[in-house]
Specification:
Strand order of the largest sheet: 1-8-9-2-7-5-4
CATH architecture: Beta Barrel
Oligomer: single chain
Shape: globular
Number of domains: 1
Largest sheet: 7 strands, antiparallel
Helix content: 25-40%
Low-confidence stretches: none
CATH class: Mainly Beta
CATH topology: Small Protein B, Chain: A
Number of strands: 9
Radius of gyration: 16 Å
Strand content: 35-45%
Mean pLDDT: 86
Number of helices: 3
Order of helices and strands: EEHEEEEEHEEH
Distance between the termini: 32 Å
Length: 136
């Protein structure tokens, strides 16, 4: 089971990283069944704690008395070296974008891409190269 961020195709990544995702029980069940929306999702490091913002996990329909987190803010699990690396990239004006959420064993992981948004002409060149490679 793997959920991809369609907006990640608009970015040119220089590095990728995998982080653990902190979820409640209902969120984890919902990810297994219902899915997730990445629209406008981004990763930031706030007070030394990496968090993903605007990640909308559809509510689990069988959960009772469950408060739904509308903010879409969830913590990421990284070691101190990886957090320092993310902060360094962020100071260099790189964007931290969630690329995918996947299941590894029984844990949900998030793949984070570090890069910059492509310009329109760069996107066209990328599409031309892909089409050329596909036809030959």
């Amino acid at each position: 089971m793997r959920y991809f961020n369609r907006e990640s195709h608009d970015y040119k990544f220089i590095d990728k990283m995998v982080a653990g995702l902190v979820l409640s029980g209902a969120d984890a069940k919902s990810l297994r069944v219902a899915g997730v929306q990445f629209k406008g999702a981004k990763v930031e490091v706030v007070n030394g704690i990496p968090k993903v913002f605007n990640l909308q996990i559809n509510p689990y329909k069988y959960s009772r008395n469950q408060e739904i987190d509308k903010s879409g803010e969830r913590k990421l699990l990284l070691n101190s070296r990886e957090i320092a690396k993310l902060q360094s990239y962020r100071r260099q004006k790189y964007m931290l974008i969630p690329i995918a959420i996947f299941l590894q064993g029984k844990w949900f992981k998030m793949e984070i891409g570090i890069g910059r948004k492509m310009k329109k002409f760069e996107k066209r060149e990328k599409i031309k190269k892909e089409e050329f490679a596909k036809n030959n």
